[in-house]
Amino acid sequence: MSELLTALENTFRQAGWQYRRVEKREVIEADFEAYHTRVRVHAQAFAEIGAISIGAHLSNKVPASRAGIVAEILMRTNEELTLGNFELLWDTGAILFRATNVFGHNELDPQIVASLVHSAVAEVDRLTPFVSLVLSMSQQELAVLNVKMFLMREDLLPPIPDLDDVPDAEVTKPCR
Fold first, then answer.
1. pLDDT of residue 158
2. DSSP 8-state class, residue 103
3. Burial of 138 (0-12, 13-18, 19+ CB in 10 A)
4. 3-state secondary structure of 13
5. Which pLDDT belongs to residue 164?
């Protein structure tokens, strides 16, 4: 176990986030309750380059018949992101959000890690209803769907919390 993984675990512990270590890997996983969905977060330490990568998974699986439209949604969403990106794993239909930060030699900044986790959970929660709706649409609805306009729907977005009234530990709630 690297010092970087130990620092990553300490960051999760200090934030009050329950996690589990993935055997034989420099990885921990945690589940978070968000507005629309439960989000699984995968945090991996790359000690040889001093990096932490945070991945968060959407629960939806994309069938091959919808891969093109979902890929367009992810591409258009990625154009607007300043941190991280969405990926469609073509062979499995899995969707994930990934953000990575290089810290240098074991100088992990807990605030940056917490920010990466918060961002990953928030982005997955934000995109989940859009993907769910597209997966449930009929072929006729898909044929006339304007993806750019569809992604502007504010009624599908989770409410923005008033962070002045929320303690830091409550911004991202771990599953219990």
1. 86
2. -
3. exposed
4. helix
5. 64
Question: 71-78 — which CB contacts under 8 Å span 24+ positions?
Answer: 72/147, 73/127, 73/130, 73/131, 73/134, 73/147, 73/150, 73/151, 76/147, 76/148, 76/151, 77/127, 77/151
3-51 pLDDT, tens digit per residue, is 999 999 999 999 999 999 999 999 999 999 999 999 999 999 999 999 9
Write the pLDDT tens digit of every residue in 81-91: 999 999 999 99
Closest to 97 in 3D by CA, of 23, 39, 16, 32: 39
Cα(76)–Cα(26) distance, rounded to whole angstroms?
Answer: 32
Cα atoms in the 13 Å half-sphere on the side-chain side of 131: 32
Residue with tokens 């270590």: 21
34 SS3 class: coil
For 16, 89, 171, the CA distances from 131, given in Å and listed in that order, are: 30, 14, 24
**Can you tell me the mean pLDDT for 90-110?**
90
Count CB atoms within 10 A of the CB of residue 28.
20
- Alpha-carbon span 152 to 147, nearest angstrom: 9
